[in-house]
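Worked problem 6 (solution included).
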Amino acid sequence: MKIKSYAAMEAGQALELYEYDAGALDAEDVEVEVDYCGVCHSDLSMIDNEWGISQYPLIAGHEVIGRVSALGEAAKSKGLSLGQRVGIGWTAKSCQHCDACINGDQVNCHQGSIPTILNHGGFASKLRANWQWAIPLPEKLDIESAGPLLCGGITVFKPLLMHKISVTSRVGVIGIGGLGHIAIKILRAMGAEITAFSSSPAKKQSILDMGADHVVNSRDPEELKKLAGQFDLILSTVAVDLDWQPYFDALAPKGNFHTVGAVMKPFQVGAFSLIQGDRAVTGSSTGSPGQMRSLLKLASRADIAPKVEFFPMSKINDALEHVRAGKANYRVVLKADF
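Solution. The predicted structure is:
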């Protein structure tokens, strides 16, 4: 079977129309016809081979909203049906039988989970994934804006589960962009007290409108000093190196500094910043199928929708440059128009 797509033929190049033979559908796989696909900075990193794992031709895209168009023989008994709306995020496959998978920690599969991008991603008319990674969409979920929940959303939701965030928690979010603005919406639904750290004072009112209780200028050292000892969790979504010490100082006893941003430089933290107060520095990747299902149910119930702008998929290179230039109004979503 031929699938139409937009692929990078070499690192850093503009995407080209590319048709590939998908072959027979694996027994446990689902084929999904793409309706929408979000654009994530990870797509750019893979297109440019920033992480050294890209394989070309490379079909990026891993925030897919679509409809089941075919089911492998074994997948037919897994509760999915033809025409059903599903979402596919960062991960396409995991072994399903190692200790991590059996414990519901499939993203840490001992045999190595397979990213959707390396399995032929969602910048295409169709894509395939193991049935467990095709996440059923709740009926009331806004399908046009839901794609970014499958990567950006689960990336910021998982730390809130890990650190048992509740209505009594005080949480800081560093970087109110594509990830950070979703974190604020989720935290508001969970009832936590939210402080947003932003380097863009002009965004203050829009950040408050999203649900933040406080907005702090992250470029103002004096403002940061005033927050010492306050936060149960500080969630960093930025991929740039900062002066981290003021944020470590802002943690309450037993507080956690958690990063989901791919900062390439090592964190500089003094031992006593952690020892005094039993504090910790942690990180996480994306979530399990179960966690993704929980997030989508919460998003449907609490009306959590990422702020997005749309491009037709035929204008994909314009969309990628829009994101690359930092002009995206939080998130970009492609609408399939093959």
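Discussion: Residues 237 and 260 are 5 Å apart (CA to CA).
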